[in-house]
Predict the structure.
Amino acid sequence: MTDALVIGGGPAGLMAAEALLQAGRAVTLVEAKPSIGRKFLMAGKSGLNLTKMQESAPFLASYGVGLHPTLRNCLHAFGPEEVRSWAEDMGQSTFTGSTGRLFPHAMKASPLLRAWLARLDALGLDRHTRWRWVDWDQNTHQFDTPDGTRVLVPRVTVFALGGASWARLGSDGQWAARFAAHGIPLAPFQPSNVGLDVGWSDHMIKHFGAPLKSIALHAGDQVSRGEVVISNRGLEGGGVYPLAPALRDGAALRLDLLPDLSVSDVAARLAKPKGKASLSNHLRRVLKLSPAAQAMLREFVPSLPDAPNALAQVIKAVPIRHAGLRPMDEAISTAGGVPFDALDDTLMLRDRPGTFCAGEMLDWDAPTGGYLLTACFATGLWAGRHAAEYDRP
C-alpha cells in the first residue's frame, strides 16, 4: 500500500508530484526509462523555451478554437507568469526573447531539472526508474522492474505517461492499449508539430538544407509566417509545424513567397523590362527571390505564366503537393489520447475514482513556442492538487 502514486517522470508527472508533496501526501514516482525527464532534456537541447509571455486571450487562442474548458482552467491557474515565478523560485533566472518566448538564462533544461529534483527529493519524493507500468486492476498497479514484477496499491494515482512521439525518450503511447482494454475511451493519436512529406523531383536535391525565409504558409484559415527548411524528406521547421491540425483535416497548402507584397505590387515589379535577362535572373533582380524559393516555384508550377499579373498570383499562392505529415515518431508532439469527456473537471477519470491523468496523454493540441510545456506543467499541477484533496472511500 502506498499513499500517492505518480506514473511518468516528465514535466507533468513531476509537477503532479510537487503538488502532492506540498499538500503533505507521501508520493512515489515511477519512470520507465533509466532517468527522469528525458524528453524535457531533449526539448531544451537548443534552448529551453518554457512558455510564451503573452496576455491571456492570445495565449489561450494558440490552443485552438476547441480549447476545452478544463484545460482553459488549468492554464488560467498556471500560465506564463506562474511558469516564470516557478522557475525563478528554484534559482533559475529567466529572460524574455524578442518574440516573447521565455528562456532560463542557462538555456539548457538540465540545471532546471537538477534543481527541481533536488526540491522534490527534499520534500520526500520516493522515485524509481526502470519501472514500466504494465496494467492495473481498479487501484492495483503492476510494474516490470529490474527486480521483477512489483505491485503498488495507492490511495490516489496520477498518470502522466506522455503521448506517442519520441518513443526512444519514453513517449511511446503503449499505455493506450491497456486503457482501451479496460473500456476507457481514447481519441486516436495523430502527429502534430511535425514536418511535411514531399516527394521531390531530382532538381530539388541541390536545395536540400536550404531555408525558405520571409514566406507565409496557408492551410485552410490558418497562416504561418515561420521559417521552413527544404529537406530530403520534405519541409521541416517552425513555419509548417503550426499547420499540422489543418493539414490533418485535409486543408490544401499554399505557399506565399512574398507575403509582405500584394499581388498588384508583385505584378508591377514583374512588369519592369527584363531585357535579355532570363526569367530566373529577372525574379532574382526585381523580387529578390532566392534560388531555393525559385526552385519551389518551378517544382510545383512547372509551366509559369508569362503575364505579370498571372505570374504574381502564382508566386503569392504556390500550391504545395505533398503526401501528408511525417510519421508519428518524428513529431514533436501528438494530438489524441484520453479525451476530456472521459474526465471530470479535476482531471479524474469518471470511471476510475482516485485516478487522474495529465500532460500529453490528454487529447489536446498546441504549437511549439512554450505552449506545449506550459500545458504539461499546468495539467500536472491541476491533477496533483486535486489528487491531493481526494480521499478514497
Remarks:
- The chain has two domains: 2-191+330-389, 196-319.
